[in-house]
Amino acid sequence: MPIKSTSKSAAKKKSAVPFKKSAPAKPVAAKPVPAKAAPAPVKKKAPSRGPGRKTSISAKIDVGWGNSVYLRGIGGGLSWDVGVLMDNAKKDEWTWACPSSDGPITYKFVRNDVHWALGPDRIAAPGETAVVTPQFPPW
């Protein structure tokens, strides 16, 4: 069994790190802790029934190869002066959507942005999906 050395030199080696005195701690004023507020009640968003709803307009018509259907009107970013090209979803279906309309959209279909559809102007309410079969004059 090894013998432990109890000499003074061994004791000095163990405590080679000198002891540092730290400065006395300054007193710190206690800060008031705010009381936890009750969580705010969660508000459920009610489905909107008025402005700001998506309005879609579809034209069910085959205008022939190379022809397009445009939409003109007022409201939802439409204009009576320049037509907006509708998306050709199928051979006989043209669609347009307004992400959020603030009021009714008055519109009319225009073939190739030149030939106006027959009949009166149509009106789509906010949030409505209108599917119409327009009639155009013969070429």
**Structural class computed from helices and strand pairing:** mainly beta
Query: What is the H/E string?
Result: HEEEEEEEEE
Mean pLDDT: 81
Helix fraction, binned, reads under 10%
The H-level CATH homologous superfamily of the domain at 53-132, spelled out, is Immunoglobulins
- CATH topology (level 3) name of the domain at 53-132: Immunoglobulin-like
Secondary structure elements and their pairing?
Layout lengths: L7 H7 L38 E8 L8 E6 L9 E2 L1 E4 L2 E9 L3 E7 L3 E2 L5 E3 L4 E4 L7
Parallel strand pairs: 1-9
Antiparallel strand pairs: 1-5, 2-3, 2-6, 4-5, 6-7, 6-8
The gist of it:
With 139 residues, this protein is mainly beta. It has one helix and nine strands. It has a domain at 53-132: Immunoglobulins (Immunoglobulin-like).
